[in-house]
Each structure stands twice: as C-alpha cells, then as structure tokens.
Model the fold of this input.
Amino acid sequence: MTRVYSYNILAGGTCRVDPLAKMLQSRNVDLVGLVEAVDEQVVAELAARLGMEYRLSGRLKGQRVEQGALLSRLPILATTAYRSSVLTKQPLLEVRVEEPDGQSLTVFVAHLTASFSQGWAAAQKRRREVAEILRIMASHQGTNHLLMGDFNSIAPGERVKGSQFLRYMTDPDLYYHLASGGGTLGLPNLNYVVPPALGFVKPVLRAAPKSKLLGSLFDAGDALYAPRGGFDLLRRAGYVDCFRALHPSEPGFTWPAGLAAGRIDYIFASSTLAARLAASAVETGSADVNGADASDHLPVFAEFG
Done:
C-alpha cells in the first residue's frame, strides 16, 4: 500500500506546526504534497516529525511567496522543478520515489492561479496551466504517476455552497485565529473575488449569508461565478479524480476548512495507477485536532494497493 496526502497548509503553516503534524499523522501516509510551503523550517519540522525526507520546488523567479514541497517516507530517486511563464503560482514539482515493491512512482505537486476577481480571464489562465502541466507530464504516459495540489477550480458538474463561501469572506472571526503575528496571511475577502467593476454588488453579497432567500439564490446560481476549467483536459488525457472515482455523490468539500463550501483540492492518478486505487477521503480532523485549526484547506487522502 502507498498512502498519499495533498495539503495546502496556508502561507507556510508558520505557528501551526502542531495541528498540521496531527492532521498528517492521522493516516500514517507515505507521501505528502504540500502547497504554499513558504516556510522551509515548517517543512523540515513536519518531515522530521513524520520520519520523512523532503524536497522543495523553489520559488518562481522574482517572487518570494510560493513554492511546493513533497515529504516522503519512500526512497527519493530524482527531483525536478519546472518553471514556466505559464505557471504563475509556483513551479511544478516532480519527485520520483521507489515503492516497497520496487516500482517507481512519480509525483507532481501543483498550485494553479487564483486571481478570482479576474473572472473568466482567470479561468482561462488555469486552463492554460493545466495544458502546460499535461505537456510536462506527457513523457510519463503509461507509467504510475499522480498529480496533486490546489487547483482553485470546481470540477464540471459539481456544486458550490456560495452562501457559506460568502459568510467566510465576510466574517473575519472565522479565520483570524489562523493568522500569525496578528495578520490575515492574505486570506480572502470580497476584494479578492469581486472585480472592481462590480464593486456595487458588495452590499448584496454581505447580506446574502444572513438571508435564507438570498443565500438559496446564491447557492443555486453557482454556475455563474464558481471557477471551472481544465478538468476536461485531464480527463481526456486519462487522469482519474481519486476522490470522485470512489465517492460519486459525496460533496468532498476541501475549502474553507472551517465552513467548507467547495472542492478545489485534488489527487489525480494516471490510468495505470488508478487501477490500484483502494481508498480516498477528505480529512476533516480527529479527536486531537480540528482541521480548521491547521489550515484554511482540508487535506485530500488517497491509498493505492
């Protein structure tokens, strides 16, 4: 068995090592893909507590914020970071490991752009990023590999609880406890998702979570505002959404952790690896830790037999 987590730890996870470690220790995983692994000290500490090695993608040229990481209990055979003008959030991290039976497994860790206030333009940008990632992974067709991370998009046909999303955006008490040093860590607000030209609708959006009618209307109209794009390219290339493959009707929401409203974190398996898929879940926490105290995302789990 090989067990995997994909986890956005929010701005490096600084000052949240204990709850993050407890989240990661809950299933005795072999591989952990970390998004927003800004603070290498946090990555190193998590790796030490889990008895793992780690590799970093490094940051994009001229940017200090984003990088990805992979923690591995399995022997690491090779590491590559791909930088591209198309990938604007963080480099695509590729790590090849050796499974207990001697097979080679390649893991890609990605973080697609957000830029929600750009609307359709941001969705098209994410689609181009998926196409670029598929181009990079093309040489691995026919082999065991997986792609995981924060895609900042909703899969086609899935729903979003927009009223809960708005409540999270407009109630800072729901996320201030995650901040270190009194800041908000770049956590989203209405300015983050509403284009400047539509600023006049903000009063309505603030009222929606408090009104059953407005909230219902906003939930029903999610196709108009929820970001989607690029998943058809992954499906066409033969990649399998691990959670959805085993849970066709469960929401599986991963964000925001304290008031989950949508599924934007994924583990995609190549067709050969998907044949071994044995389990998948969204980890909400345990008796020892609440997922909302560790990050604004919940981790996605997959197990391959």
User: Anything to note?
Assistant: The chain has a mean pLDDT of 87. Residues 2-159+226-304 form a domain with the Deoxyribonuclease I; Chain A fold (CATH 3.60.10.10). DSSP finds ten helices and twelve strands in the chain. The chain has one domain: 2-159+226-304.
